[in-house]
């Protein structure tokens, strides 16, 4: 085989153009796929912060906070725990 009559400039152009079009197609196909990983509106609404009224807690009392995921516990610290948390 000989390279007589081969236009290397055109070959490079065609390879580059094909690569660009292929990359654009890959990105175009990946966008909806990656977008499907996002949570829907119902899941986003359920994932908000938990709500609880802690104004009625007395010092030293704990309260469970429900919500999405594992339950949380809210402690109302006594003045002794606030002043010296390691000792109390």
From TrEMBL:
<protein>
    <submittedName>
        <fullName>Ubiquinol-cytochrome c reductase iron-sulfur subunit</fullName>
    </submittedName>
</protein>
<dbReference type="InterPro" id="IPR019470">
    <property type="entry name" value="Ubiq_cytC_Rdtase_Fe-S_su_TAT"/>
</dbReference>
<dbReference type="InterPro" id="IPR019546">
    <property type="entry name" value="TAT_signal_bac_arc"/>
</dbReference>
<feature type="region of interest" description="Disordered">
    <location>
        <begin position="42"/>
        <end position="88"/>
    </location>
</feature>
<dbReference type="InterPro" id="IPR006311">
    <property type="entry name" value="TAT_signal"/>
</dbReference>
<comment type="similarity">
    <text>Belongs to the Rieske iron-sulfur protein family.</text>
</comment>
<keyword id="KW-0732">Signal</keyword>
<dbReference type="Pfam" id="PF10399">
    <property type="entry name" value="UCR_Fe-S_N"/>
</dbReference>
<dbReference type="GO" id="GO:0008121">
    <property type="term" value="F:quinol-cytochrome-c reductase activity"/>
</dbReference>
<feature type="domain" description="Ubiquitinol-cytochrome C reductase Fe-S subunit TAT signal">
    <location>
        <begin position="2"/>
        <end position="39"/>
    </location>
</feature>
């Amino acid at each position: 085989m000989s390279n007589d009559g081969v236009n290397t400039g055109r070959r490079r152009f065609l390879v580059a153009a094909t690569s660009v079009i292929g990359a654009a197609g890959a990105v175009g196909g990946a966008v909806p796929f990656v977008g499907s990983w996002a949570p829907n509106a119902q899941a986003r609404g359920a994932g908000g912060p938990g709500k609880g009224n802690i104004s009625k807690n007395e010092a030293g009392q704990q309260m469970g906070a429900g919500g999405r995921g594992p339950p949380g516990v809210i402690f109302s610290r006594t003045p002794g725990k606030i002043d010296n948390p390691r000792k109390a």
